[in-house]
Structure prediction request, 367 residues.
Amino acid sequence: MRTQVGIVGAGPAGLMLSHLLHLAGISSIIVENRSRAYCEARVRAGLMEHWVAQLLIDTGVGARLQREAMVHDGITIAFNGEARYIDFHKLIGKQVFIYDQKEVVTDLIARRLADGGQILFEVDETSVLHDFIGGCDGFHGICRPSFPDRALRGYDRVYPFGWLGILSESPPPDKELIYCFHERGFALFSMRGPDLSRLYLQCAADEDVDQWPDARIWDELETRLGGVRPLARGKILQKGITPMRSYVTEPMQAGRLFLAGDAAHIVPPTGAKGMNLAMADVRVLSRAIEAHYKSGRNELLENYSRTCLNRVWKGQRFSWWMTQMLHRHSDEMDFDAKRQIAEIDYVTGSQAAMTSLAENYAGLPME
Ligand code: DHB
Prediction:
């Protein structure tokens, strides 16, 4: 097989890369070791930055997003039994979109196949001849470990807690998201629809889901919501533990292999930057590959890693900051807890601080 770009992984990064290359007249082939059904069913964070939603719309894969996504103007942060709203739309004129990553994957797969794109599912290894490789196969994929040994350095932070996440047949407590800081730990109230809630609780890193029967989950969610809204209970459809880790590989390129998304960097889930950073990587990569083929210019390819890492570290900084601000670091009301309450009070009270949060949350500018 001869194709210009070989892409490993049919997640949002690999699929969007293939789609953007196709629009630029460049052929690619995607190899994915899971099945199509698996890729389309994997529930992940569902929060999309302003520019990512616009990218989907502008490149012709935003029709269902425009019909089905929930558009949010801001978020609420609750602490000490008080709810404080940060209005992104008023502060910076941007909104965010709630649309699960699996819906993005479903839409992109459908579009790639309709455009004659090649996606090989359930393939472990393939001999594809190509000029470039897009390593979009996630944190546990084969691409990053295939870098020459001393060529890359990893920057790592592991958090001593995780998230217990549920999907439940119940209306969310608010029409937009509520992030809670509580002495028993963090909680997040998100949604996938008017009667479908996506809810998260801070738990131990090695938490055993079996220790969490439904009633315990609901009691804990209600306690941490702190009475700022009533909480409707419902049938729990899914339960899972999300580990929390910050990780960056530098550089993101070796020879003709270019890493993008989770293959190169992962963030803790607070603020949901993962897919958004992945989309930024492939936007940069598709332009660089296009410049190579259209005008023989390689500066963009040579600068790929530097360009991406600039944004990646800002996303890392923001995800770490949201995480440290909103999670309990010890069981005591200690220095950190007091400092965090002061920080949340400041962040939800100062125009300058709210604007800074809004800019990062809704997405830093992407030219
Ligand atoms: C969701 C997940 C997040 O980590 C977040 O910060 C906001 C929303 C979600 O899955 O809906």
